[in-house]
């Protein structure tokens, strides 16, 4: 899977990737990965990072809780707002 993810990122070159669920986040490939600054909202920290594309661009990436495990739309709105604006 790691190669396929990086190939898709290189092909489509998104600015952002939001990963739905911690299990999927834990399975994301480590190749071309750079840790980012965590986003802190209400004292809770959310990990972020970026994948480096072949052309040198970075794809900002973060994970959100999967809605099936309980989801506070207010909270995640504030996290995503910080993610997209910084």
Radius of gyration: 13 Å
Question: How many alpha or pi helices?
Answer: 3
Tally of discrete structural domains: 1
Helix percent reads 25-40%
Strand content: 25-35%
- Overall average pLDDT: 93
Global shape: globular
For the largest sheet, list the strands in their spatial order.
1-6-5-2
The major β-sheet equals: 4 strands, mixed
Ends distance:
29 Å
H-E order: HEHEEEEEH
Helix/strand-derived class?
alpha+beta
Low-pLDDT runs of 5+ residues are none
Quantity of strands, as a count: 6
Organism: Leyella stercorea DSM 18206
Protein name: Uracil-DNA glycosylase-like domain-containing protein
Task: Characterize the structure shown.
This protein is of the alpha+beta class. Helices cover 35% and strands 30% of the residues. The protein is built from 3 helices and 6 strands. The chain has helices spanning 2-12, 22-27, 73-85; strands spanning 16-20, 33-35, 39-41, 44-46, 48-52, 58-64. Strands 1-6-5-2 form a 4-stranded mixed β-sheet. Strands 3-4 form a two-stranded antiparallel sheet. A hairpin with a 5-residue loop joins strand 5 and strand 6 (58-64). It is globular.
